[in-house]
Amino acid sequence: MKVLSVLQICVISISGGLGLKAVCHKDNLDCWTQNIRQQGILQFERCQSTDILRRLIRISMLECVKECMITSHCTGINYRHLWLMCDILGDAKDLTSEMNCVYSAIKTWDKSMAGECEYHTCNNGDKCFFDGENPKCEPAFCVDSPYAPNAVSAERFGTYRNIGAAVKFKCEHDYEMKRQPYSECQPSGQWENWFLCVEKEKCSDEWTFVSDKCYFIVYENVEWQQAVVCCYIRLNVKEYGGHLAKVESELEDSWLISQLTDDAWIGLNDIENEGLWHWISDNSRPNYTNWLLAEPNGFETENCVNYCKDYCEKKFYGWNDGKCNRLLGYICQHHFI
């Protein structure tokens, strides 16, 4: 078990009459030892990363404690002395390790530090203030977290909910940001998103996205070698890289068959070595095939594979080895990244 030093667990208290804004700036421990009366327990290098009601900067830890006491539903604080940053925390959650951060449960501190707001009954979302005559309540934070579909917080220390705060988000994988990446907590207590996370365009125009691949079926009659070239340049003039389709599963095969209206080339061939079928895209051997009955049967004269139905006198599409100079449509493919 780790033994904590005096500076890692401090038991302190503050007299009710102490002017918090005038003392202990930048958390001077010598200052803390004055007027000791009641315990306030600190956990060093520990922080709560969720349910942050408010985030305040350029204040001392003692000011942070008081802000927690006057904020409805506050149960504790995080304090980062390097940034003079204070987090006012809601429901107590599991703590996580974080360098240069201090956590403290507010119940360990002297309640009289809240001054005239010691016994406030402000509603959730409000904080107490003293107007010179009576304690009153005013909106301080949004009760709920922002609703940001397909997005996650981009805040280094977690999302906070101050009135007027604009917290930063980033889109999840496969989504892209439109407009400014912020959500603002309005004075009404509601959030206003300044952005949308929209699904990325997975395939160019005319291409169809299925199972992380883009497909384009072309019914222009060309030889197999010409189809190879056409797929390479058809992706677009700036981004070459398409290839004749590599069909790797029954699911993929069934979907392609459902789209076909005529025979079409795919990338399988045995041009270099008779009987050793490989895909033109990466020279790999097929792990899945869907040969028509009695196929392949062309031996050295038929080295290129196509989907075939009517020409092969079949009622359904399947794979056929054909002469590479036959004129057919073709199926192009590229992976979406």
Automatic annotation (TrEMBL):
SUPFAM superfamilies annotated for this entry? Answer: C-type lectin-like (SSF56436), Complement control module/SCR domain (SSF57535)
**Sushi domain: which residues?**
140-199
Domain (C-type lectin): residue spans on this chain = 210-333
Give yes or no: UniProt keyword Disulfide bond.
Answer: yes
**What CDD domains does its record include?**
CCP, CLECT
Q: List the disulfide bonds.
A: 142-185
SMART domains listed in its UniProt record? CLECT
| Entries under PROSITE patterns matching the protein | C_TYPE_LECTIN_2, SUSHI
Report if keyword Oxidoreductase is assigned.
Answer: no
Signal sequence span is 1-19
Alphabetically ordered keywords of this record: Disulfide bond, Signal, Sushi
Recorded protein name is MRC
Organism equals Mytilus coruscus (Sea mussel)
- Lineage, broadest ranks: Eukaryota, Metazoa, Spiralia, Lophotrochozoa, Mollusca
